[in-house]
Amino acid sequence: MSNYVVGISGGIGSGKTTVTNEFAKLDVDIIDADVIARDVVAPGTEGLRAIVAKFGSGILDQGQCLNRRALREIIFSDEQAKTWLNALLHPLIRQETLRQTIEATSAYCMLSVPLLVENGSYKTVDRVLIVDVPEEMQLQRSMARDKADETLIKSIMASQATRQQRLEVADDVIDNSGNEIALVKQVANLHHSYLKYVGAIDQS
């Protein structure tokens, strides 16, 4: 079990996955709440059955998997639907997150949570790392990646913590507005620091 947990977050389009992929290359166990969120609504799961019962079979794609874009459009236009979905999924996600944290074997592990700040999860980890980019870059990257319109992305950004709110709870910040070389260097420096914190390398 990893006794030291670094929580990582950032707004939509900030590049959290790019950053965690770099930490993974350094043999850090990554526990990704986004991946877990997909797993708990995979075909055949209790989560997906409940969603279909609530919203109907139209919420499925041609392969009978959850149409995440359709669901996202529903919950960002219907606050009650969003509340219902959170009440269903959050306990399932927490349970699996805890299991994976307990089973992590690296010197420290990294918990990637999109809503780390919003849901107060930052209080439960040992250190908070925020991936930061300017808001205009968030918007442009998200629109390009998700092929979504500007209104939807802005709605998602508005529902998240502000850039300032994220930075206020950060112990460490990665500036992901530059190139890959700059990013890799920042990750390497932080990895060295985290290994020091857990006593995995000499602190002298």
Taking Cα atoms only, what radius of gyration do you get, to the nearest Å? 18 Å
Contiguous low-pLDDT stretches (5 residues minimum) are none
Average pLDDT for all residues:
92
Beta-strand content estimate: 5-15%
Total beta-strand segments: 5
Largest sheet: 5 strands, parallel
The helix content is 40-55%
Spatial order of strands in the largest sheet: 2-3-1-4-5
What is the CATH superfamily label of the largest domain? P-loop containing nucleotide triphosphate hydrolases
CATH architecture classification of the largest domain? 3-Layer(aba) Sandwich
Domain unit count: 2
Query: Count of helical segments?
Result: 9
Structural class per helix/strand content?
Answer: alpha/beta
- What is the CATH topology descriptor of the largest domain? Rossmann fold
Helix and strand element order: EHEHHHHEEHHHEH
CATH top level class name of the largest domain: Alpha Beta
Query: Judging from the principal axes of the Cα atoms, what is the shape?
Result: globular
| End-to-end CA span | 26 Å
Subcellular location: Cytoplasm
Binding site for ATP: 13-18
Organism: Paraglaciecola mesophila KMM 241
Pathway: Cofactor biosynthesis; coenzyme A biosynthesis; CoA from (R)-pantothenate: step 5/5
How would you explain this protein's 3D organization?
With 204 residues, the protein is of the alpha/beta class. The protein folds into two domains: 1-28 and 106-204, P-loop containing nucleotide triphosphate hydrolases (Rossmann fold), CATH 3.40.50.300; 35-105, no CATH class. Helix content is 52%, strand content 11%. The protein contains nine helices and five strands. A five-stranded parallel sheet has the order 2-3-1-4-5, sandwiched between helices. Helix 6 crosses helix 7. The chain is globular. The model has no long low-confidence stretch (mean pLDDT 92).
